[in-house]
Amino acid sequence: MKAGKENMEEESREDMKKAINPLLSPYKMGKFNLSHSYPNTPGIWTSEQTQAWRPIVDAVHEKGGVFFCQLWHAGRVSNFGYQPNGQPPISSTDKPLKIEFHIDGSGGASFSPPRRLSVKEISQVVDDFRIAARNAMEAGKSKLAIQIRFDGVEIHGANGYLLDQFMKDEVNDRADEYGGSLENRCRFPLQVIEAVANEIGADKVGIRLSPFANYNDSGDSDPDALGLHMAESLNKFSILYCHVIEPRMVTQFEKLETTNSLMPMRKAFRRTFIVAGGYNRDDGNEAISNGVADLVAFGRPFLANPDLPRRFQLDTVLNKHDRNTFYTPDPVVGYTDYPFLET
């Protein structure tokens, strides 16, 4: 059965390579038929966040799309300091971040020293991820009036958040079975993957990784080895996809020249391989045509262009994103107020 799914993805992969506009070509990812359509539905924001998401998810499904719920724990980046219960944030270390996070340009938030997780607590966090995945998938079965049907979950193992804090040797300074060697540092993230895959099915699980990035003061001395080890290890669980940030995005907002490549990871991982980071229409099409990736993920361009697939199809001008509105509490400005193309 696994081989059959891999063969279907390989056939889909070859079809996309031959397409005139590979970014917009249909793709078979496991049991999901991706059509690259988009819902003409702006976000509906209310005090009830579940209610806010439901029409968006429903619109995606009406267009034949799929919607994955991202699961993540920020670790020492949590809450810009101490948690509401008075406890410090958790991490693989007790070292605080060396950076200040400036939300709107008017000031920064310093991070308090984290608390190093015990081995027993790590097991509990693994279980927390498992329960969160189950809850996400059961949201559509809820007896509540508001239901959301997620198609799967993406585990966020990137961007300097908790799982990344264990993988990266410039953060993880543990001396137990979760620190030191590459295998030990990756143990916790892989335990999370295994627990979630066992709970909801590997065909509904993806992961996001950033081995080359140094976001939130989380770098690694050998990102090539880290990325390859994770790609090879993920094959044991037959998860749906691996979503990786390009090496050129060492920092969050600047695209740098580099000779590093994701190709070793791409060749090692046997299922759908997704890349992200600094892509536009032309190099996105080129990445798929050249076999660099099966799919290309767009973040800021999609935020600023809710009809991005149509703009790519027409090869027309894009709205420019406004970085000053990123990570702000306003529920509309910079999130749902970018214009669609005129019909």
Automatic annotation (TrEMBL):
Family: Belongs to the NADH:flavin oxidoreductase/NADH oxidase family.
Cofactor(s), by name: FMN
Keyword Flavoprotein annotated: yes
Phylogenetic lineage: Eukaryota, Viridiplantae, Streptophyta, Embryophyta, Tracheophyta
SUPFAM superfamilies (UniProt xref): FMN-linked oxidoreductases
Protein name: NADH:flavin oxidoreductase/NADH oxidase N-terminal domain-containing protein
Superkingdom as given in the UniProt entry: Eukaryota
Domain NADH:flavin oxidoreductase/NADH oxidase N-terminal: 35-313
GO terms of molecular function: FMN binding; oxidoreductase activity
Keyword NADP annotated: yes
Keywords: Flavoprotein, FMN, NADP
InterPro entries reported in the protein's UniProt record: Aldolase_TIM, OxRdtase_FMN_N, Oye-like
